[in-house]
Amino acid sequence: MSRPDPARMAAYEVLRAVRVEDAYANLVLPRLLREHGLTGRDAAFATELASGTLRRRGTYDAILDACTDRPLATTAAKVVDALRLGAHQLLAMRVPPHAAISTTVDLVRDRAGKGASGFANAVLRRVGGRDLDAWLDELAPSGSDADLAVRHSHPAWVVAALREALDGADDELAALLAADNAAPAVTLVARPGRISRDALLDQVGVGGGGTPTALSKRGVTMTGGDPGAVPAVAAGDAGVQDEGSQLVALALARAPLTGSDARWLDLTAGPGGKAALLAGLGAQRGALLTAVEKQPHRADLVRRALRGAEGVAEVLTADGTDPGLEAGSFDRVLVDAPCSGLGALRRRPEARWRRTAADVDDLVPLQRALLDSALRLVRPGGVVLYATCSPLLAETRDVVAPVAARDDVTLEPCPMPVDAPGPLPGTTQLWPHRHGTDAMFAALLRRT
């Protein structure tokens, strides 16, 4: 009896950790690669197998359902995890069919027993009977939300919400859904006062495929290699940060301001990427950043990100809706609000299967409370930048519009280096299929 090979076992354990522990694949995968001694091509294979399976889970579940005589929901979860891995190898990877099937059967036998392995063998032979396009033509032939959900592996409610956010632009919806399933390059940020972008490019080198980002003047993309092996990243002089997130912090720093510009605030700072960028930008002007984070473990991540940085006043473990800070005492405030995260599905594909429409309803009151808190804490004439890594109108337009209508607040054009109009005049909505970034929303509000 053959034992599962280490690369496939590592991918299987990623899926199990996501399912059982609510883990994020990008966080648990490096540890599992080390535990199984995987490097080079084997590590790349395990990474694509795990990440690709999570991205296309909805599609594979529809195909697997069509290949079984009983609902997939009644099959043991450990077997379903293995079947999804097998489907990805058969339909989306250059793995010979016999190898994809036999190795998956070995995995099922090891995890669930001999009886389940026979079932897996029969199902996967049916899956491999046609290619992915043929399956999609049969199971998702139209452009309805339900068929797009199967074709592009998104929950149907997410498809409907993204259609609304695109203002009914049906010709773009498929492109957006496809972009969510494309693995992004790793993006680094050169933190001001610590390293220049040119120096970071030199460190990434040809082997890492380093290139300057198109929109952020602080960003570098890597197409290969381990970002943790870049000396500047290891030292905290640079960090891993999507270009859209960099643009949000840069926009807050660029906003015009008269009078005092000495006290900056990141009201929801965990895990610390934007705070580190803001601290560097503020230090160049003599400003000090206060960072607030409610969750203690995330506050520790913020402290780690800010370690050795200039321009830091303090890091507080406190609730951003009522952090105990003096009203009207800050000049610039960032609210990177907790949100559904549906703008970052390229990087965290499993998030689409965790979130529900009810989760969004639960998050909106918190987003509104944080924005209200920020406007209390900023001085008259100061600015607040409200951002979400979500394009959903409930988390963007519907949070900002009531606040922008207040007598003591004005909504102003968000200073971005790209034309990316959002759902309200002056706001910004970045998109993966248009701009190559996560779907970041940003609105700049001034307290009058």
UniProtKB/TrEMBL annotation:
Binding site for S-adenosyl-L-methionine: E293, D319, D336
Classification via InterPro entries: MeTrfase_RsmB-F_NOP2_cat, MeTrfase_RsmB-F_NOP2_dom, NusB-like_sf, NusB_RsmB_TIM44, RCMT, RsmB/NOL1/NOP2-like_CS, SAM-dependent_MTases_sf
Boundaries of every SAM-dependent MTase RsmB/NOP-type domain copy: 176-448
Keyword 4Fe-4S appears in the UniProt entry: no
Active site: C389 (nucleophile)
Alphabetic keyword roster: Methyltransferase, RNA-binding, S-adenosyl-L-methionine, Transferase
Family: Belongs to the class I-like SAM-binding methyltransferase superfamily. RsmB/NOP family.
Record protein name field: Transcription antitermination factor NusB
Organism listed in the record: Nocardioides lentus
